[in-house]
Design brief:
The complex is a heterotrimer of chains A (357), B (298) and C (276). Chain A is built from eight helices and 20 strands. By secondary structure, chain A is α+β, with helices and mostly antiparallel strands. In chain A, α2 crosses α3 and α2 packs parallel to α4. In chain A, the strands form four sheets. Chain A has a six-stranded mixed β-sheet with strand order 6-7-8-3-9-10, with helices on both faces. Chain A has a five-stranded antiparallel β-sheet with strand order 13-12-11-14-20. In chain B, a hairpin with a 7-residue loop joins β1 and β2. Classes of the chains: A alpha+beta (357), B mainly alpha (298), C mainly alpha (276).
Chain lengths: 357, 298, 276
């Protein structure tokens, strides 16, 4: 097990700068998820750590070793691929034991280790089969077994669950979490699914355009996003955004929307100059049906356009100030309702830079 | 290479991988090409000292050599008369096979069989078939009264070239069939089903859907057919050796005759150069202009 | 009830007639080879034989060292097949997966070789063999056969390799394979359909080639099987029986190899190949 450090890592493909000055320290035994939209550089970053891509600048350090220019096989890492990348011409046992065989491990020892991994992953009955005779979930587990069996210093996962159906994905998510608790191997996990990142990771790295937007615990990213991008990426359903202008900034922060309706955020965001345009961000779960406890100026009213019953709760789409807001509460289509805003959990962003104010 | 682009296992690897192929390529393709170009400027019997004669070989070839003219005429005849029948027959067989008949593999093997038999065998067997004295065709001709089957196919200067072409068609139709079978297997079944649902008849399906969708196979076969025409050698060598009186002469056979029978290495080299230029020009034309490819690849 | 035959029946009938016509020369070869001695004037070019006898084969084996020539053919053919498979798959792997200076030029050079009429090179190859003392040796045939077989094989392999998911090779790299190891342990085992196409084609061309053999081999003891009808034409080949028995013997090995590998062939041509 080991720490992983990226020091000012750059990557260019031709003239395209895919990664710019990436700095990241990962503690020994930590589970870190890299998330972001496609093309944000998360996979490239993982592949550079793996040694599948060279770095154009900066350094990658695993443990105390600078591995920036070492071939993948000398980095003591293992990787689980999105497509699993199982060797079609080898049995499950051969697939899992291949890395050990290449390192000259004794055959009896390979058998032991493969057996042990198969035991953990419930693959004992299929050890003699070829990958094409396995179900999707089994293939996924073989890919994990192949990574585990070598007891590497770092596990790298590249969207390992995205080829599974929804139910199996939830199940395997729990399995991966359990495995990490048992093995406590440093893990770097790339996904585009923020739920996966939130549920699995100790810390999440949100990437955008080849840069890190924010690094933090799931809780920090959810509660205190540094930018509109992070705020929008983390949380499901997505945070609601409304363009507004600050009109009264003395004692409270009052906002006016495009249609002239107003909202006061109270003392939460005082200090902004009047006339400043802002983007208001408010999560669906921080809107509720306004009751007697909600002050008149902390309400947004609108008409319910769509309802999405999810079973445990319901999402409604409400037209407010010409925009659609999503709220997690029950109502009927066509209802004219007043939404109470949880003012302490509202976020304000600069419309130009997208940064949190 | 700088270190920066690097955790690949050494930038030397690609060169080691292509080294053996490159050595053979240089020794047996590049060097021979340069060699024939040089030696085409000499009068040389392959053993004694060669004399530099400049373009004399080429001048003789283009102005004083009726055999060369015949070889060119034969190539012009040969290309369409082999390529078209091989394509049409090969496609018909492949289509019938692929749309479902029992024991497909056996038919496929039978039609492909001639393509794997040695030209030595093919030549001797067909000499017997064409033999006017007790050969298969003449026996049939006498038995049935179809007298045209009793002509001496290979020794009649007017007929010989067509007789050789027929053997070529027999030999290579199976190869066309094989490429068409592979091409048909690659067609999306949904497109064919869509045509069926739109009410296309069998003829319409073939003419408007299947045939156009196999364009890459047609182009490949034409490309290979043209190159094949310019390479045709063992079959002619065995069947007629270019005779009678150069009536079935091909450029390759003529090269062999000049080089190894008449010991005119320089003259043979000049013919070789002309042959290469024609082949490369025609191939490049097809690849560049028609977009033909060796479809066995990309 | 209708009396029109189904399309399937018509197709089968047409194909059967065509196949019968296609088989005639081969059947005639067999018939003449199996003709009992003394029955020289069998009708229809020898197709209509009365009775069957192996005596022509006995004569062929008696008068010519058929087995020796067969062994020569095997040595030359198998060596060139092995060399072509190894050399072209290595090169094709570099072409498919690595970027390197001159790589593209070299690939197009090999591609252009396919458009080159090989007989145009026969004079220089003969001289080359002479210069290097390869005339009248196995290598004098093995090397040119290999060199001229490589371009086609490279194309087959390259298109096949390009269709292998790259993640497999990356997984192998992480598992600890060198580039050579990936080629040997991952890429080649997965590419047997391509290999079978290459083996069939190379086996056929090397086994059947005779023009280069004719000018390269001087000693009878080194000549391949295809030259037998030409070298022993005088002594006993004037009789059709032993001659056609020999032709049959020349044909058996290629047919056997083809039938053994036929089922892989279409697969090899379609998998990753024959794309627009």
């Amino acid at each position: 097990m080991a720490t992983v450090e990226l020091r000012r890592v750059d990557k260019t493909f031709g003239t395209h700068q895919a990664i710019q000055g990436l700095d990241l320290s990962i503690a020994d035994g930590e589970f870190v998820a890299l998330v972001g939209p496609s093309g944000c550089g998360k996979s490239t970053t993982l592949r550079m750590i793996a040694g599948l891509e060279g770095v154009s600048g900066g350094a990658i350090v695993i443990g105390e070793r600078d591995v920036s220019h070492l071939p993948a096989r000398d980095r003591d890492i293992a990787m689980v691929f999105q497509s699993y990348a199982l060797y079609p011409h080898m049995t499950v046992a051969e697939n899992i034991g291949f890395g050990l065989k290449l390192r000259g491990t004794r055959r009896s020892r390979i058998a032991e280790l493969v057996d042990e991994a198969a035991e953990t992953l419930q693959l004992k009955e299929v050890l003699g089969r070829k990958p094409k005779e396995l179900s999707g979930g089994q293939r996924q587990r073989v890919a994990m077994g192949r990574a585990m069996v070598r007891h590497p210093q770092v596990f790298l996962f590249d969207e390992p669950l995205s080829n599974l159906d929804a139910k199996l994905r939830v199940h395997m998510r729990a399995q991966i979490k359990k495995l990490h608790r048992q093995l406590t191997t440093t893990t770097i996990y790339v996904t585009h699914d923020q739920t996966e990142a939130m549920t699995l990771a100790d810390r999440i790295v949100v990437m955008n355009h080849g840069r890190i937007e924010q690094v933090g615990t799931p809780h920090q990213l959810y509660g205190a996003p540094v930018s509109k991008f992070v705020a929008g990426f983390i949380g499901s359903p997505e945070m609601n955004f409304l363009e507004a202008v600050v009109d009264e900034a003395a004692a409270t922060c009052d906002l006016t929307f495009a249609d002239g309706s107003r909202l006061s955020l109270g003392e939460a965001h005082v200090g902004l100059p009047a006339g400043r345009p802002v983007t208001l961000g408010i999560r669906p779960e921080h809107l509720h049906l306004a009751g007697p406890g909600d002050p008149q100026d902390a309400r947004l009213s609108g008409v319910v356009e769509v309802i999405e019953p999810l079973g445990a709760d319901t999402l409604i789409h409400v037209i407010v100030a010409g925009r659609t807001l999503v709220a997690r509460l029950a109502a009927e289509v066509g209802d004219r309702i007043a939404l109470g805003v949880d003012r302490t959990r509202a976020h304000l962003f600069d419309p130009a830079s997208g940064l949190t104010l | 290479m700088s270190m920066s682009s690097a955790p690949r296992s050494g930038s030397l690897a690609p060169y080691l991988f292509v080294l053996p192929a490159t050595v053979l390529f240089v020794a047996y393709v590049v060097y021979p090409i340069l060699y024939v170009i040089c030696s085409s400027a000499y009068r040389w019997d392959g053993i004694n000292q060669a004399t530099f004669t400049g373009l004399a070989n080429y001048i003789r070839l283009f102005t004083h050599d009726p055999a060369f003219v015949l070889a060119i005429r034969n190539a012009v005849l040969w290309a369409p008369l082999t390529i078209l029948p091989q394509m049409l027959l090969g496609f018909a067989i492949a289509y019938m096979l692929e749309t479902g008949v029992p024991r497909q593999a056996i038919y496929q093997a039978i039609f492909y069989l001639p393509a794997i038999i040695s030209p030595v065998v093919v030549g001797i067997v067909w000499q017997r078939i064409y033999n006017p004295f007790g050969g298969l065709l003449s026996d049939i001709g006498f038995a049935s009264g179809l007298r045209f089957l009793t002509v001496p196919f290979l020794s009649d200067t007017k007929v010989a070239i067509y007789a050789v072409i027929a053997v070529n068609v027999w030999q290579w139709t199976g190869f066309s069939m094989l490429l068409y079978v592979a091409g048909l297997k690659g067609l999306p079944t949904e497109t064919l089903e869509a045509a069926k649902i739109e009410g296309a008849t069998l003829r319409q399906t073939i003419v408007y859907v299947v045939w156009p969708m196999l364009r890459h196979v047609h182009l490949t076969l034409i490309l290979l057919g043209v190159i094949g025409t310019l390479q045709t050698f063992p079959l002619i060598y065995m069947l007629t050796n270019g005779g009678p009186n150069h009536a079935t002469e091909s450029l390759p056979n003529y090269i062999f005759l000049q080089a190894f029978k008449l010991q005119s290495m320089g003259y043979a080299s000049a013919i070789s150069v002309v042959l290469m230029v024609i082949a490369l020009a025609l191939s490049l034309f097809q690849v560049r202009v028609l977009g033909a490819r060796f479809a066995l690849a990309e | 009830m209708t009396l029109t035959p189904s399309p399937r029946t018509i197709k089968t009938a047409v194909l059967t007639v065509l196949a019968a016509v296609w088989l005639v020369p081969v059947l005639m070869m067999l018939a003449v080879a199996l003709m009992p001695p003394g029955q020289r004037a069998a009708g229809f070019g020898g197709l209509a034989i009365k009775g069957v006898s192996l005596s022509s084969f006995v004569t062929a084996f008696d008068r010519a060292p058929i087995l020796m020539h067969f062994v020569n053919s095997l040595i030359i053919t198998i060596t060139s097949v092995v060399l072509v498979v190894v050399i072209s798959s290595l090169a094709a792997y570099a072409f498919a997966r690595m970027r390197f200076r001159g790589g593209e030029g070299l690939f197009y050079g090999l591609l252009a070789t396919l458009m080159l009429p090989i007989p145009a090179l026969i004079v220089p190859i003969f001289q080359l063999n002479k210069t290097f003392g390869l005339l009248d040796t196995y290598w004098g045939l093995i090397l040119p056969y290999t060199a001229l077989g490589v371009p086609f094989a490279v194309i087959i392999y390259r298109s096949f390799f390009s269709a292998i998911p790259q993640e497999l090779e990356e997984a192998a790299k992480i598992d600890g394979c060198s580039t050579f190891g990936i080629w040997l342990r991952i890429v080649m085992p997965l590419s047997w359909p391509a290999t079978s196409v290459v083996v069939i084609f190379q086996f056929m061309t090397s086994f059947n080639e005779f023009i280069l053999a004719l000018v390269t081999m001087d000693s009878n003891s080194l000549k391949p099987l295809t030259l037998v009808p030409l070298i022993y034409a005088g002594p006993f080949m004037a009789q059709p029986g032993p001659m056609f028995a020999t032709l049959t013997l020349i044909t058996i090995p290629v047919v056997a190899v083809y039938l053994l590998m036929q089922r892989f062939m279409i697969g090899g041509l379609t998998a990753g190949a024959v794309k627009g």
